[in-house]
Amino acid sequence: MLNNLVNGEKELIVLEIANNHQGDVQHGLNIIKSFSEINKNFIENFNFAFKFQYRNLNTFIHKSFKDSEIKYVRRFLDTQLEKSEWNLLIESVKSEGFLTMCTPFDEDSVDEVIRDQYDILKIASASIDDWPLIEKIGDSNKKEIIASIGGASIEKVKRFYSYMSNRNKDLALNYCVSLYPTSKKDLNLSYINELSKTFPSIPIGFSTHESGELDNSAGLALAAGAVIFEKHIALENKEKGYGINDYSVNLEQYNKWIESLMEAKTIIGTVSKRNENLDKELDALRDLKRGVFAKTDITEDILDYENVYFSIPSNKNQVLSNDLSKFNDIHIKKEINKDKAILYNHVKVTNTRPEIEKIRDTIRDDLISNNISIPQSIDLEVSHHYGIENFAEYGTCMLTLVNKDYCKKILYQFPNQKHPEHYHKIKEETFIILVGSLNVTVEEKNYELNKGDILTIERGEKHSFESNTGAIFEEISTEHISDDSYYTDEKIQNNLNRKSKIMLFNN
Questions:
Q1: pTM attached to this predicted model
Q2: What domain range includes position 484?
Q3: What pLDDT, in 10s, does the model give residues 194-215?
Q4: Are 142 and 257 members of one domain?
Q5: Separation between Cα atoms, residue 153 and residue 268, nearest integer Å
Q6: CATH code for the domain of 321
């Protein structure tokens, strides 16, 4: 239920009456009626609940203090309501179309809350570690529970969460500062985000006790991740001597408060609304995006930085600079004259990223399963000599771990995959097989290498390799120079887009 009430479209606002009914049921009914009128203006944007408090004062207050002038003792005793009066308040909330909610402060009151069929049970900050009470609630059949955590360390909150989670409760936590009223400097709303990270599976709310004049705190809490907002409400009645305490709001203040929250909700928006605006944004940015133009007369070829340049303005159907991504192969389908705009119907665009990511994921999982440790920040280099569409037959993958005067790489060969013939003028290299087997041809001489085998290839020696089983092997060499690979097949040698790089772990 609680997750449904705060489903990303609507947040839950809890109007806390507490003892502000003053023990006068008619005054309590006036509060419900008056504040409901404001709520109805925002019913499309929020869910609402009115909250009461139950205490069995016969046991909650020690008998020797019944005549005490202690603030809370006096207030609780002076504002008692009869069972029939509570029923009137509950029915009033329901008739207005809102949820009912109640905080029990003792075990007897838990039974009362359940008997009166409140929609949500609330646990007060003072009760978060009151284990006789917590156990009573935990053993009850009441599922929907919101708990305030004012004054509680994160360790206490974690224990409480663990206890309730193990009893299958539909739980939410309200961040709360139990200072009445709470000053701006004590609000510390950033803690809401911390709670969201610590308890990502449940709603996090904000129970407020700040001055009624501070009307923007809920909006800031919403930005921090809160989806439940509890606010103390009250009405003044000068004839009867009913005032309003410093942490409750009157009708005017509540209206400003919820309007401020609504404004924040509009500004913050949603992920879906952000995505809805992307097309509009792209249209607005179109004139500032650089279009691709032919640097020379271009015949059938792959577009790259050598044969194009970028300028504004671009037209609606023009290839843009951002299209020349490392994961896009762009082939010209027709001749394009110098300085002419290159349009989408002039080219064929192949996005290789999904295939590269699939290759990356396979290699990463295989390395992990074979207990081969790789630093987190390493790039995976995917060689697709005849294009990504032919990678299963021709290609290899490598991870460069060290490249100084000496070099260490991990190479990965898929089953039945070939690495075409080539040689190096500068470096010599040694292969050490870690997993699988590798067939290597060096100057037309064949070597079958298995796990643990070592083979050194000298400078200038033409070599190729393939694997029937798949292979993971080390390459130990002198310094690797990027343009020191010379392929027998000129088609490969002239293909400047035969390599793609992607981070092994962090992409």
A1: 0.68
A2: 353-503
A3: 999 999 999 999 998 888 788 8
A4: yes
A5: 30
A6: 3.90.1210.10
Do 218 and 234 lie in a common domain? Answer: yes
Domain count, the chain: 3
| Residues 6+ positions from 183 with CB-CB distance below 8 Å | 210
At 254, which helix (H) or strand (E)?
helix 251-268
At residue 375, the 3 state secondary structure works out as coil
| CA separation for the pair 57, 54 (Å, rounded) | 9
360 and 470 housed in the same domain: yes
Beta-strand ranges (E) seen in 149-189 are 170-176
Q: Which of 334, 350, 366 is the last residue of a domain?
A: 350
Q: Strand, helix or coil at 197?
A: helix
**Residues of the chain where predicted confidence (pLDDT) is lower than 50:** none
Coil/strand/helix, residue 247 = coil
Residue closest to 109 by CA, chosen among 92, 93, 130: 130
**Phi and psi, residue 157, nearest 5°:** -65, -40
Is residue 486 a contact partner of residue 462, using CB atoms and an 8 Å limit?
Answer: no
Residues 470, 345 share a domain: no
Residue 73 is predicted with a pLDDT of 83
Does an H or E element contain 86, and which? helix 83-95
Task: Name the strand (E) or helix (H) holding 397.
Answer: strand 396-403
For tokens 């097949």, name the residue: 489
